[in-house]
C-alpha cells in the first residue's frame, strides 16, 4: 500500500512540474513522512490539468502542424533585431571614438568574445549554433554596405585561462589597424552543458563568483592592446556587471552588451559603425569591486558625508573612510547610457504642483535632440521624499518612457505617476502616503537634467 501511495504521488508530481530527481525524492519522502499532504499535490496537479484542458491540449497535444514555420519569421526577426540593438548600452565615448567610420582602413577585432556566440544559460542544447558572432556580424554589415574596411581578427586569450601567449598576436593586430575593438566579459553555457561535469562558466544557474572582475588573462589583453596607442574600444559581453575600474578610466570607449539574441553580432556591428544610434540604459549599477557592493541606486538616506579613498596607478595610497581605499560610487550608475547625439530637457511641469494623498499626477518635459543624428532617449522620472516618518530611499524611479526624436527636433513627453508610488512603509506596517514635499527629477540616477517640487496635503 505504501508503494502504491508513493507511485501515485510521483505521478502527480511529474504531472505538475519538471522537477529533477532529487526534488522528486525529497517531496516523496515528505509525503511518506506525513509532513506534506497528498491533497497539496492534488491541488497543484488540478491547476495544471485545468490549464491543459482550457488550452485544448488533450484533444490536440501538438497544435502546430509545422512548428518550424512559426520561428525565425520575418516578423519575429524584426522584433529580435530591435531588441538586440536597443539593449546595447554605450558607457563611455571619449573624444567621440564611436561610431567608427565605415571608410576607415582597418579594424582589429580582438578578444575571446569576438568569434563566440554567448547566450544565457536557459537555452536549449547547441542554441548558440543559431547565433551570429561579432566577427561574422562585422563582416556581414561591412559587406552589406560594400565597405572595403579590413577586419584583423585575433582571439588574444581564452575566457577561462591565465595563458597570455596569444596576446602578442592581438597586439600585432592592433598595431596593424586604425582602431581596436576588444570583446571581453563573462560566459555561460546552455542548460545541457552547464550541468555537464568538466565544463566551466561564470554566469548561470548554480554558478557563484567571489569577484566581479574579468577572469584569466582578459584584463591583461585589454591593457596590452591599449598600450599600442591606437583608439581602443572595449565591449563587455556579459550577463552581469563587470567591475574593472582600469577599463573605465583608460578605454577610449566602452560598450555593454548583455547576453544578446541570435542577431547579437550584427546588432553590435551596427552600433559600433553608427548604423544604429545606441539608446540602451543600464538596469543595474556597475560597482568598482565586489567589496563595494551592493550599489543599488535607491539606497537609504544616510547622515555621513562621502569620503572615498583610492589607490593611484603609481601605487600611492590615498586613504579615506567610505571606503578606506575605494569608493562606493559606481563605475556607471543605474539608468546611465550614452548616445551619438545630445539631448536637452526644458519646461518641466507637473499636472498639479499640489495634490491630495490619494491623487495621482503627471510629469511633462520637453526633450530636444540638439545633435546632428536621430536618436532615441529614455526619459526617466525619479522622486525623493524630503521629510518622512521613516527612512526612505535617496531617490526612486517612478516612471520612464522611450521616445524617438529626429535631429534638431523636440517633443513633449508626459509620464503619469500613481499616488501609491509616493507611499512609505510606516511603523504601523502599512503603506501610507504622507503629506509633505517631494522632489521630482528628470535625469538618471546620478544626473539631474530638470527638477521641480510636488506638495502632498
Explained architecture:
With 457 residues, the chain is of the alpha/beta class. Helices cover 23% and strands 24% of the residues. It is built from ten helices and 18 strands. The protein has helices at 2-16, 21-33, 38-54, 74-86, 134-144, 167-175, 191-194, 218-226, 245-250, 264-272, and strands at residues 89-93, 106-110, 150-154, 179-185, 232-238, 253-258, 310-311, 317-318, 343-350, 354-355, 361-369, 375-385, 396-405, 410-417, 424-425, 431-432, 436-444, 447-456. A six-stranded mixed beta sheet has the order 1-6-5-4-2-3, with helices on both faces. Strands 10-18-17-12-13 form a five-stranded mixed beta sheet, with no helix packed on it. Strand 5, helix 9 and strand 6 (253-258) form a beta-alpha-beta unit. Helix 6 runs parallel beside helix 8. The termini are far apart. The model has no long low-confidence stretch (mean pLDDT 93).
Number of helices: 10
Which stretches of 5+ consecutive residues score pLDDT under 50? Answer: none
How do the SSEs run, as a string of H and E?
Answer: HHHHEEHEHEHHEHEHEEEEEEEEEEEE
- What fraction of the residues are assigned to beta strands by DSSP? 15-25%
- Report the helical percentage: 10-25%
Sheet with the most strands, sense and barrel status? 6 strands, mixed
Structural class: alpha/beta
Widest sheet, order of strands? 1-6-5-4-2-3
Rg: 26 Å
Amino acid at each position: 500500500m505504501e508503494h502504491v501511495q508513493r507511485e501515485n504521488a510521483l505521478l502527480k508530481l511529474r504531472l505538475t512540474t519538471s522537477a529533477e530527481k532529487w526534488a522528486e525524492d525529497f517531496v516523496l519522502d515528505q509525503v511518506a513522512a506525513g509532513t506534506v499532504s497528498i491533497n497539496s499535490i492534488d491541488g497543484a496537479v488540478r491547476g495544471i490539468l485545468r490549464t491543459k484542458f482550457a488550452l485544448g491540449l488533450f484533444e490536440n497535444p501538438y497544435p502546430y502542424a509545422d512548428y518550424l514555420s512559426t520561428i525565425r519569421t520575418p516578423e519575429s526577426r524584426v522584433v529580435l533585431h530591435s531588441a538586440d540593438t536597443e539593449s546595447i548600452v554605450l558607457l563611455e565615448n571619449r573624444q567621440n571614438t564611436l561610431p567608427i567610420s565605415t571608410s576607415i582602413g582597418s579594424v582589429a577585432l580582438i578578444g575571446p568574445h569576438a568569434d563566440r556566440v554567448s547566450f544565457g544559460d536557459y537555452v536549449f542544447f547547441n542554441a548558440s549554433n543559431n547565433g551570429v558572432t561579432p566577427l561574422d556580424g562585422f563582416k556581414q554589415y561591412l559587406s552589406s554596405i560594400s565597405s572595403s574596411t579590413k577586419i584583423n581578427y585575433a582571439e588574444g586569450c581564452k575566457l577561462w585561462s591565465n595563458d597570455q601567449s596569444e596576446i602578442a598576436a592581438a597586439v600585432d593586430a592592433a598595431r596593424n589597424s586604425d582602431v581596436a575593438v576588444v570583446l571581453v566579459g563573462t560566459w555561460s553555457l546552455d542548460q545541457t552543458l552547464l550541468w555537464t561535469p568538466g565544463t566551466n562558466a561564470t554566469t548561470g544557474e548554480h554558478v557563484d563568483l567571489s569577484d566581479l572582475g574579468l577572469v584569466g588573462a582578459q584584463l591583461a589583453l585589454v591593457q596590452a592592446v591599449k598600450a599600442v596607442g591606437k583608439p581602443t574600444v572595449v565591449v563587455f559581453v556579459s550577463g552581469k556587471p563587470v567591475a574593472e575600474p582600469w577599463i573605465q578610466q583608460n578605454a577610449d570607449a566602452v560598450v555593454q552588451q548583455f547576453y544578446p539574441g541570435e542577431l547579437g553580432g550584427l546588432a553590435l556591428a551596427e552600433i559600433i559603425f553608427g548604423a544604429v544610434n545606441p539608446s540602451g540604459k543600464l538596469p543595474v549599477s556597475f560597482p568598482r569591486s565586489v567589496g563595494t557592493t551592493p550599489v543599488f541606486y535607491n539606497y537609504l538616506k544616510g547622515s555621513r558625508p562621502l569620503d572615498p579613498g583610492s589607490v593611484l596607478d603609481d601605487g600611492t595610497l590615498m586613504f579615506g573612510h567610505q571606503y578606506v581605499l575605494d569608493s562606493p560610487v559606481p563605475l556607471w550608475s543605474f539608468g546611465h547610457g550614452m548616445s551619438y547625439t545630445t539631448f536637452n530637457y526644458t519646461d518641466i511641469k507637473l499636472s498639479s504642483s499640489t495634490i491630495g494623498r490619494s491623487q495621482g499626477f503627471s510629469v511633462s518635459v520637453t526633450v530636444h535632440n540638439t545633435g546632428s543624428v536621430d536618436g532615441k532617449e529614455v526619459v526617466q522620472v525619479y522622486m525623493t521624499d524630503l521629510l518622512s516618518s521613516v527612512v526612505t530611499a535617496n531617490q526612486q524611479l517612478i516612471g520612464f518612457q522611450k521616445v524617438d526624436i529626429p535631429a534638431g527636433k523636440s517633443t513633449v513627453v508626459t509620464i503619469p505617476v500613481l499616488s501609491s508610488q509616493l507611499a512609505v512603509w510606516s511603523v504601523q506596517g502599512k503603506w501610507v502616503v504622507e503629506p509633505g514635499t517631494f522632489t521630482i527629477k528628470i535625469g538618471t540616477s546620478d544626473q539631474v537634467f530638470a527638477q521641480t517640487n510636488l506638495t502632498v496635503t
